[in-house]
Amino acid sequence: MASGIKDKVAIIGMGCSRFGERWDTDTDGLINEAFSEAIQDAGIERSQIGAAWLGSALDQVNIGNSAIPLATSLRFTGIPVTRVENMCATGTEALRGAAYAVASGAVDIAIAVGVEKLKDTGFGGLPVPTKGTLNDLWMPYSSAPAGFAQLASGYRKKYGVSKEDLKQAIGRVSWKSHQNGARNPKAHLQKAIDLETIVGAPIIADPLGVFDCCGVSDGAACAIITTPEIARSLGKHDLVTIKALQLSASNGWESSTGGWDGSYVKNTRLAAKAAYKEAGITDPSSQLSMTEVHDCFSITELVTMEDLGLSEDGQAWRDVLEGKFDVDGEVPCQVDGGLKCFGHPVGASGLRMVYENYLQLQGRAGERQLKNMSMGLSHNLGGVPYNSIAAISIIGMLEDYL
Length: 402
What we know:
By secondary structure, this protein is an alpha/beta fold.
């Protein structure tokens, strides 16, 4: 029986560019911004990297359909370089490829990079009747806000939550992200916004208002990984290791049967169950120190708390309002501002989430540093609730080494 990769892979270096509308640089610049921080953190030479994975989901303008842009940006010579794409789980997919290579013994040191420069492409998230931009190809007959707003309808109907209570709860989700993003110098949005403004904002797709929706960004993130044994030989201590990497993709059940009630995301629950088993987690609320989840919309984060087993079904809205997921709550969520405020360069987001967990575990998160860190979870959701890819990464400190 497969035992998974728990503690077989150590993260020895990570980096992340500043996210935002990066008109000041190009894709190469973003990659090198993240890579320079990561390799300095790892304390290795470029020549020691044995394989690389590039994640990019939507940027055909700057990346195309191969891994050549990564090889040329970082001047990799004679090593395998692979491009991966898996919607919003792309960054996690790049990490998964690199981690499996290291865990299998195929390479000693590998690198995963996620990058997207979406502000150059014209991609704005909502379809418009124009030609020649990604909006023509991405859900041309619907919109992401409409797809995720259905979660709110399904949730309200199933659990009998009033429209007013749910609006306050999802407003609190966005409020929290803005409070946290204001303390993050790399975040796309760094302004705190009061709850009244968020709740009263114009509606995009009922009940989602302007501040309930994340935008897209330019940005890159990078991870350098190896085995714990090699990390020790490099003089690394207090190692952060991968505890679990799991992914689940829709098979059509949600949109082709009457079995799904629209109140949850099945793939998140399946991926979480597998990840908890791999990581040895039996009580996520007490064993996880923090989470970074795919808050493409505020309702998504709320529902994800139940899908991850951090709230009882039908109770996440109450837990949100009571502050369970605030920075000083039981299980802090989106300490860095999340997709909502840190930003969402689609191919980089999964690695950005791991980056925040990594900094927190090493006690290097600065003003937003949490106490008593042991394990952090990140969650991506690509697509829409009824047709999705869910990815879960769990990292933590290595204990009882050998």
